[in-house]
Amino acid sequence: MADRYWVGGNGNWNDTAHWSATDGGGGGVSAPTSADTAYFTTNSGSNKACTINVDAACLGLNHAGTVNIGQGANILAVGSGGIAWSAGTFTGGSKALTCAGAFSLTGGTFTCPTSATTFTLSGDFTHSGGTFTHNSGEIVFDSDTEILGTSTPTFYKVTISGTLTGKNGTMNVANNWANNGTFTHNSGTVAFTSNTTISGSSTTEFNNVTVTGTLVAPAGTIQVEGDFANNGTFTHSSGTVEFTGTSTISGSAAPTFYNVTITGTLTGHATSFNIARNLVNNGTYTHNSGTVVFNGTTTISGSSVTSFYSVSVTGTLTAPAAMNVAGNWSNTGTFTAGTGTVTMNGSGAQAFNGNRVSTFYVLEINKSGGTATINNNAAGADVAASEVDINAGKLLVATGAALDVNGSVYIQTAASSNLELLGTGTLNVTGNITVDANPTTPLSPATGSTVTMDGSGDQTIGGASTAVCAFGILTIANTGDPAATAITIASRGASPDTTVVTLNVNDGRLLIDSDGDITVSGSLTVASGAVFTASTGTLSVGGAFTNNGTFNHGSGTVTFYSATTAAIAQNITFYNLICATAGKQLTITGGKTLTISNDLTLTGTSGSKLLLRSSDTTKFTLTCTKAVQLVTCVDVSYSQCSTYSIVNCGGTNSGNTDAAEALPHWIFRVNNQLKRFVGAAWQSEHLQVYEEDAWVIKPLKRRVSTEWVPVQQAP
Question: Which of 185, 417, 662, 678 could be a cystine partner for 439, CB 3.0 to 4.6 Å?
């Protein structure tokens, strides 16, 4: 084992004239062998050249001079003494360079062998100065190596067959990365700057990964404990990226991953990133207000609930048992809900977009602020669900949009819970609409919006809330047997319990529960084959009442209340019928019969009479089953009475009535006129006096001795 010093200027490696046993001494000793350390110093010559003209070996190579070494087409094998390079130039050749010890570059220029061969290093790699040039060659770390130094090295091909500890900083890789050993990231960054393919039999766990060129991942797994910054092109190769530590996805280009596994904490890209296959979350995902695009065939699974910001489905997405969305939901692909819950829980505006129907199992709205809007996206039903839970905040169905619920809608928990339908927005429900005690305004419908109850079994609109349930167009289209099933509007203590602009009972049976009150400000239609059973409360109607099916009055009251002309079509039996709006017109279908089972109250004023008209020139019939009714200041034409006469005090006969016909008929009286009634329910005569637009019943008295005593008190 000896030291060998280069002397004598230019020459070949195997020329003994250029090797000395001492620094600056005379030449003539043997060229270095694998047992000798070769030195190039300031005494070796200034800017001279040493050409490796044969396969060469040395124990160590220490270069501190200005002699330039050219490897040429010969092997250079450096032993455990390693390479220490601080000045001068080394130019690698087309044959292998091996170093069994450490490599240290602190000055000068060191150029690796060409792409035709390899630089194999068994010791540490230190770069703290000078220039390291990879020369498109491959560096093989075959033992126990750590990347050290203050400079950032750029490797071309990296092959790990031993153990490589990365730089606690940044190291660049310009070509392929093959790991058949062990890589320890040392909390550093590996930057892939050109065209890299990761391969090898071992799984690589990086700390930070930066892509500025093109990175092709392996078909297996790579692990990332730190950040993943993509400013180039990432190709997933149908492999898995596992985020094991505290990671953030960033960069100017949105990466597309295949499988993503989270076992640590992953913060998503602030703009967007893509997942083409499965997402397994056993850790924590922080959305960073970015979008995750599912552009392949994806199943979300794992032990943790994933909270996304925005979700875009362009491929096929199968949901987990639970997932949260704080931003927008867009579906232009296929969404499979399974039996999971998707919760919209953002604090601001959220929207459902896309040209495909998103069919959820349970859709939950749990917002601290803002509105979640279902937009009209040119789909038949824009959003569908088996259950909708509005626990806090507003769910809005935009004009032209549709929400189909193949189950029930629950509006509950928070005072802010609200379902709003704009314009021609549509809600179809096969189950119940249930409102609990907390929401202040549970339903906010536009006049032209439609809620359709279209199940096949019993359905209920109700709940513990005393707030009014409001509807635009409420359509009953239940396909169940009306004799066995019903859509029930429950009595909840409000007055009215329910308000509707337009009520269409098209199929099935609508039942107003108990003493519940309902107000229909527009028209009410009962279609052929359908059944409407009212309650003992009040049904207030502002527009037309058309009965082509079955109307059961339920011993309740129907009030026509608005100033708008109201048409009453077909034969209908009311229990109590009230219309007390001066100047209003009731138009009854000619040839049809209105039957009043209890009280009839029709009142106008002397200056603005209530108008009672036929729809054509055919008389309609009023059948009263009680003798006494309250009818005052009514202008009547084309009408006749049945069972009992109707006395219209202060009213007007506008022609074509039965007033001149045999009893029973219309009787028109002026104010303060006395009337005498004889009927099966009265056992004696009574006196009625019309005083100040109202009839007052007075007992008929007779003279007994010196006093007047009642013949019979009015009932």
Answer: 417
What pLDDT sits at residue 78? 98
Contact criterion met (CB below 8 Å) for 585 and 579: no
Amino acid at 655: G
Q: Largest Cα–Cα distance in the chain?
A: 171
Written as six digits, the tokens of 580 are 């007390």
114-to-55, 74, 117, 642 alpha-carbon distances in Å: 16, 12, 6, 114
Q: Whole-angstrom Cα distance, residue 193 to residue 75?
A: 29
Quickly count: other Cβ atoms within 10 Å of residue 238's Cβ.
14
The string of DSSP letters for 622-672 reads EEESSS--EEESEEE-SEEEESS-EEEET-EE-SSBSTTSSSS-EEEE-TT
Cis amide linkage into residue 320, ω under 30° from 0: no
Q: Is 186 exposed, middle or buried (CB count within 10 Å of its CB: 0-12, 13-18, 19+)?
A: middle
In angstroms, the CA 37 to CA 522 distance is 104
Residue type, 51: T
Q: What CA–CA distances, in Å, run from 252 to 255, 285, 308, 418?
A: 9, 21, 20, 40
Helix, coil or strand: residue 410: strand
* Domain regions of the chain by residue span: 572-671, 686-715
Secondary structure (3-state) at 177: strand
DSSP H or E segment with residue 250: strand 246-250
Report the candidate in 269, 292, 288, 291 with the shortest Cα–Cα distance to residue 279: 292
Say if residue 1 is exposed, middle or buried (CB neighbours under 10 Å; 0-12, 13-18, 19+): exposed
Per-10-residue mean pLDDT of the chain, 715 residues long, equals 94 97 96 97 94 98 96 97 97 98 98 96 98 98 98 98 98 98 98 98 98 98 98 98 98 97 98 98 98 98 98 98 98 96 98 95 97 86 95 96 97 94 96 92 94 97 89 97 94 85 97 92 97 96 96 97 94 97 97 97 96 97 95 98 96 97 93 45 45 54 48 35
Q: Give buried/exposed letters for 476-493 (b at 16+ CB in 10 A, else e).
A: bbbebebeebbbbbbbbe
Contacts (Cβ under 8 Å, ≥6 apart) of 693:
603, 605, 606, 632, 633, 650
Phi, psi of 16 (to 5 degrees): -65, -20
d(CA 136, CA 173): 11
Judge if pTM exceeds 0.85.
yes
Amino acid of residue 297: T
Rounded distance between C-alpha atoms, residue 552 and residue 539, angstroms: 12
Distances (CA, A) of 299 to 219, 279, 320: 19, 6, 7
Beta-ladder partners of 541: 520, 560
Q: Which of 358, 308, 313 is CA-nearest to residue 332?
A: 313
CB 688 within 8 A of CB 696: yes
- State how far the Cα of 217 lies from the Cα of 651, in Å rounded to an integer: 93
Among residues 434, 503, 492, 428, which one has the least CA distance to residue 466? Answer: 492
- DSSP code per residue over 464-480: S--SPEEEEEEEEE--S
**CB proximity list for 301: less than 8 A, separation 6 or greater:** 278, 279, 280, 281, 320
* Residue indicated by tokens 């061969």: 117
What's the CA gap between 493 and 47, in Å, rounded?
103
At 43, is the secondary structure helix, strand, or coil? helix
Q: Take residue 271 and report the two structure tokens written for it.
A: 């703009």
Helices vs strands, H then E, count in the chain: 0, 86
Q: Any idea how long the chain is?
A: 715
The tokens of 38 are what? 């070769």
**The token pair that represents 64 in the structure block:** 């501190």
